[in-house]
Write a structure and sequence with these properties.
This protein is of the alpha/beta class. Helix content is 30%, strand content 24%. The structure holds ligand LLP.
């Protein structure tokens, strides 16, 4: 994996050993490779450059829900990325990272009034609208503060796509997007709204999608729809084709990015619109690992348990989606392997990172990494069991920086308030 290598029987991120990071920063800690992020960004951009014509290059909007650390955002901004956000909090992160608001796209089914106000005041590029009441709300708020909103309508194409039921978003039964009929209704409504400029459509069918055919099937819903909307006099000058590009967690066959780009070229480019893409996981997923220490090796009649100091509150993907993450020893990497259940300290059986996994034999105090944890890792972490949020580290060649301090227990406790009447 780009950015990860082995030296002296020890795992390194670029030129820094994970042993050194554990010693200096402690565990559990998320560690990210800058080189891996850059590599992924350039791979995506270059594939598009090679396949799509120069005048139809996509506006790449990093879906920062995948990893919203402001250092990561700043780095992607420095590479030329734009931004997709889903909340006011992400807007604030994006602005702090230096993104130009006019390059920010706002998505999500539950945009709140105060969020809409901030997004309008900031002057974002567009709102991707998911329902008719949302359209009415944006018109109302924009009118009140005398602003103008560019909007696109998210089509629900009724297609199943994505690595897990919980992250498939394009089926009729999902909460996302508008049916074909509702899209027509939305455009007609928008025409009579004083503060709305409807510019196009968006589509996002799910995450971790491996089959290029799934994207193709979704894209194929667009030409007839665009043509019918144009025939009704609507302007379609922007198509946001979403994210969903997969990464390797295990030994999956990766989506052929070139084939994907070819379908964009064949189906979307002829519609002659601006094209937006919203990659999240693809840009950061394989860049990160969760570095952890073995607390105990518990051997029972049934199993060998590796009890780590990381838990489901730090990385919830295995618990929530039964997601596979590779787990490796950081030191003594050529020790003979042993079969383990890898678990955390949280009081739930679901706090399990792997079952019956062959890993180099480990002892208490050894270090392990849970790999491919750069996307939907830290950003989904919680304080369950009053466990402080882990630190985050960014490695760049022979340097590393703490890009988020480890939370302290005091910081967690300070959020709670005891009402006076309880002790009076
Ligand atoms: N655009 C929209 C509108 C989205 O909802 C998402 C992800 C993306 C773009 C980026 O998708 P990506 O390129 O990262 O697949 N927590 C889950 C994934 C949830 C994805 C939510 N939406 C996981 O850990 O697998």
């Amino acid at each position: 994996m780009t950015g990860y290598n082995e030296k002296n029987n020890c795992l390194y991120v670029e030129n820094i050993s994970l042993e050194q990071i554990a010693k200096e920063v402690g565990t559990p800690t998320y560690v990210y490779s800058t080189e891996n992020i850059r590599n992924q960004y350039e791979k995506l951009q270059n594939t598009m450059r090679n396949v799509l014509p120069a005048d139809h290059q996509p506006m790449l909007c990093y879906a920062c829900k995948a990893n919203s650390n402001i250092a990561i955002l700043s780095y992607l901004h420095s590479l030329g990325s734009n931004l997709e956000i889903v909340s006011k909090g992400e807007l604030h992160r994006g602005l702090k990272a230096g993104f130009d608001p006019s390059k920010i796209v706002s998505t999500g089914v539950g945009k709140q009034k105060d969020e809409i106000t901030e997004l309008l005041n900031a002057g974002i590029h567009q709102f991707n609208i998911e329902s008719l009441p949302e359209l009415e709300q944006i018109q109302k708020v924009a009118n009140e503060i005398d602003k103008f909103a560019n909007v696109v309508f998210r089509l629900n194409p009724d297609i199943s796509g994505g690595g897990h039921n919980k992250i498939s978003t394009g089926r009729k039964c999902d909460k996302f997007g508008l049916s074909r009929n509702a899209v027509f209704k939305a455009f007609a409504m928008a025409k009579n709204m004083s503060n709305i400029n409807a510019t196009g459509l968006s589509i996002h069918i799910g995450s971790q999608i491996f089959e290029v055919e799934t994207f193709k099937t979704a894209f194929k819903k667009l030409p007839a729809l665009v043509s019918d909307l144009r025939n009704e006099g609507h302007t379609i000058e922007c198509l946001d084709i979403g994210g969903g590009f997969p990464i390797v967690y295990d030994n999956e066959q990766l989506l052929d990015l070139k084939a994907y780009a070819q379908w964009v070229n064949d189906i979307i480019v002829p519609l002659d619109t601006k094209i937006i893409m919203e990659p999240g996981r693809y840009l950061v997923g394989n860049a990160g690992v969760l570095l952890s220490k073995v607390l105990y090796v518990k051997e029972t009649e049934e199993k060998n348990f590796l009890v780590l100091d990381a838990a489901m509150n730090d990385l919830i993907r295995p618990t929530l989606y039964d997601a596979y993450h590779e787990i490796e020893a950081v030191q003594n990497r050529n020790a003979s392997s042993k079969t383990y259940d890898v678990v955390g300290p949280v009081c739930e059986t679901g706090d399990t990172f792997a079952i019956n996994r062959d890993i180099s034999e480990m002892s208490a105090g050894d270090l392990a990494v849970i790999k491919s944890a750069g996307a939907y890792g830290f950003c989904m972490a919680s304080n369950y069991n009053t466990r402080p949020l882990p630190a985050e580290i960014m490695v760049n060649g022979s340097n590393y920086e703490v890009i988020r301090k480890r939370q302290t227990i005091e910081e967690i406790l300070n959020m709670d308030i005891i009402p006076e009447w309880i002790n009076s």
